[in-house]
């Protein structure tokens, strides 16, 4: 084996989770290769809102998210990866949601995470088109950021190339052989690389390489539908906007004292419960507004149950609810899509180690864009038994 093909770490999967594992390994001075099965990432990393919102995470993952914020901003100061610090706001539409915002604000004050309550008038002044008959109060998180997902991941990888990362696209890994002190990785085009450690961060590669372990896992897949309006004429929506249904869904609010009682009073037969809908708005760099989303679930081993098509009834329902919140200049839609996100039923993230040096790390679910950078830093330190500088 030539030195050119031997690495300290081989990362399989070029999405956000795999790329940030590579980033932190490079930062520790390790020689790293990243293998991506497609010509560029196609999965959940490029099929989401691009909101980095530690405010929506439970206490454990908020810490990872806050670390992620610092990492994104640090990279942006050196290399443009499309980061915009415009903050995030949660908009309450009734007394129950207002109570949850008050309680979450108190929790964040205790955690020293900046947030600011906004009156109805302040919300109406700050967010053009917000309907008076919807908003009761807001909670604003000034530190939070947004990115353009389809731009960000490619630019992040370009930046990592400058730091020494070797990236191999269109490389489908078909075999990982654990030897005495390293692992040999083979791809369909007869490429062979050797690494001291291998981290597999893609559910498809996990399924192909270890089908039995994959079938025995408790991974589930969520299908999320989103859409994008035409560019909005002469309109600026500052910050990411998360609304009442988000308040009722996001993990952070489950730590609020009133949460359990409020959830218990919800209508379990409603369409928002049936389809897992909560309404988000984010203005993209071209002036369009991204709106969503929904959550339908199936075991990862039966992903076909989710279907290959968009459910237009869900899209129509999302639009109907969105129009109750914002009067946008236009609701003409230019793009519709769905993303598939794997998550672990029994843990925050799926992790399994095979033969000491092969690490499966996947199933981060909807926490990927917000939590991956911070989580990967800790995980690289753990896998390589490193101490933070």
UniProtKB/TrEMBL annotation:
Residues annotated as domain FAD dependent oxidoreductase: 8-377
Record-level Gene Ontology MF annotations: oxidoreductase activity
Coiled coil feature spans: none
Enzyme Commission number: 1.-.-.-
Cofactor: FAD
InterPro entries: FAD-dep_OxRdtase, FAD-dependent_OxRdtase_HpnW, FAD/NAD-bd_sf
Keyword annotations from UniProtKB, A to Z: Flavoprotein, Oxidoreductase
SUPFAM superfamilies named among the record's database cross-references: FAD/NAD(P)-binding domain
Gene Ontology CC: one annotated term: cytoplasm
Similarity remark: Belongs to the DadA oxidoreductase family.
NCBIfam families: HpnW_proposed
Protein's name according to its UniProt entry: FAD-dependent oxidoreductase
Species per Swiss-Prot/TrEMBL record: Zobellia galactanivorans (strain DSM 12802 / CCUG 47099 / CIP 106680 / NCIMB 13871 / Dsij)
Lineage: Bacteria, Pseudomonadati, Bacteroidota, Flavobacteriia, Flavobacteriales
């Amino acid at each position: 084996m030539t030195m050119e093909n031997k690495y300290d770490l081989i990362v399989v999967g070029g999405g956000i989770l795999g790329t940030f594992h590579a980033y932190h390994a490079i930062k520790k001075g390790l020689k790293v290769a990243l293998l991506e099965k497609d010509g560029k990432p196609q999965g959940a990393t490029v099929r989401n809102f691009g909101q980095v919102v530690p405010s929506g995470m439970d206490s454990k993952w908020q810490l990872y998210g806050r670390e992620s914020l610092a990492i994104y901003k640090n990279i942006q100061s050196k290399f443009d990866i499309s980061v915009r610090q415009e903050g995030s706001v949660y908009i309450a539409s009734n007394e129950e949601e207002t109570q949850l915002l008050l309680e979450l604000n108190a929790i964040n004050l205790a955690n020293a995470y900046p947030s600011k309550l906004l009156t109805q008038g302040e919300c109406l002044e700050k967010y053009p088109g917000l309907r008076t008959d919807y908003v009761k109060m807001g909670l604003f998180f000034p530190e939070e950021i947004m990115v353009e997902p389809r731009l960000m991941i490619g630019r992040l990888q370009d930046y990592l190339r400058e730091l020494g990362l070797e990236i191999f696209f269109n490389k489908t890994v078909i075999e990982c052989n654990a030897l005495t002190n390293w692992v040999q990785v083979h791809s369909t085009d007869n490429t062979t690389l050797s690494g001291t450690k291998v981290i597999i961060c893609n559910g498809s590669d996990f399924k192909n390489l270890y089908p039995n372990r994959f079938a025995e896992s408790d991974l589930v897949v969520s299908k999320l539908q989103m859409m994008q309006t035409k560019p909005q004429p002469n309109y600026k929506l500052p910050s990411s906007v998360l609304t009442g249904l988000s308040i009722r869904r996001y993990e952070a609010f489950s730590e609020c004292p009133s949460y359990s009682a409020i959830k218990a009073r919800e209508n379990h037969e409603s369409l928002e419960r049936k389809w897992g809908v909560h309404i988000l708005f984010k203005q993209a760099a071209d002036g369009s507004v991204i709106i969503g989303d929904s959550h339908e679930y199936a075991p990862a081993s039966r992903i076909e149950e989710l279907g290959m098509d968009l459910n237009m009834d869900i899209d129509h329902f999302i639009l109907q609810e969105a129009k109750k919140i914002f009067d946008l200049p236009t609701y003409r839609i230019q793009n519709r899509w769905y993303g598939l996100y794997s998550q672990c039923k029994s843990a925050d993230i799926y992790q399994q180690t095979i033969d000491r040096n092969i690490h499966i790390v996947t199933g981060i679910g909807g926490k990927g864009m917000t939590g991956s950078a911070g989580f990967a830093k800790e995980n690289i330190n753990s896998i390589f038994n490193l101490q933070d500088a």
